[in-house]
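Supplementary Methods, section 5.1.

A reviewer requested that the exact input to the structure prediction be made available. We therefore reproduce it here, unchanged from the version used in the analyses.
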Amino acid sequence: MKIVCAWCSKDMGTTLPENHSESVITHGICEECMKTIFAVSRAELGAFLDSFAAPVLVVDETGSVLTANKQARVLLQKNLSDIEGFKGGDVFECAYSKLPGGCGETIHCDGCTIRNAIMDTFQSGKSHLKTPAYLYTGSPDDRAKVDFLISTERVKEVVLLRIDKVGSSEET
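The structure derived from this sequence is encoded token-by-token as follows.
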């Protein structure tokens, strides 16, 4: 299995799992990208994240978004002040985040693939690559489904959430 950095595409070598396929490519984060993320000032971190073509959000262990790159801000149509410090469901405008308790505290949150992938990456260190996910925007009574492909990667005390693809479908 070939391993490449999910952020800069640098070849990071190969590994052979139990049921290996030599054509499989998995992703991690190389030492240089990891050092860059944590050894730079806030302005440099923003410039580094902006260098990625895909939308990327930096999430803490509570599910709050610490920052997001320009591509994520464009996708979400938000400024940093509308993103930083807010729970992921609030940033993505999840219909259920408006319920009492908010993001992460409703009965709907247990089934949220985005939240579960982020929390699993925190707990296990396991990355998720191009995982299908969705959420509902609007209100619980008048909602629209938004489909995603997401990837997660733990880097020290944060998880990088990359939005690989977005699509919408109207709720029926």
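The beta strands are 2-5, 11-14, 25-28, 56-59, 65-68, 128-139, 142-155, 158-170. These observations are discussed further in the main text.
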